[in-house]
Amino acid sequence: MAARTNQISEDTIRRLVDRFYARIRADPVLGPIFMRAIPGEWSAHLAVMCDFWSSVMLTSGRYKGSPATVHLRIEGIEPQMFDRWLEIFDETCDALFEANESEAFRAKAARIAESLKLSLFYRPDEVWPRRAT
Fold it and tell me: Residue 50 maps to which CATH number?
């Protein structure tokens, strides 16, 4: 049975993005990576993330970027960091939403994280998952 997601709106997406990235900035593992990638003012990044999640969850089409291309430019990302990202994302969703809405976000996030890991780290000639050197 598909999760009911009619409670997801632009407002709930904004709340998720704001709370999630506040937690990311405070995280000892992910915070430094994000702070190097997004020094200074975060409002532009948060607006892009709202557009991204609106496109993912509401099929608004507002996000026009390429997440893999953006993440390829970020130094210091390691595959296991996506597990931490998902842990914080899952906790944030669970704190903000009822079970159906939380699960809808969490399922999309898991697929996105796996796709990014494959884009950034998978090499057919190497054993997967690649170990950081």
Answer: 1.10.490.10
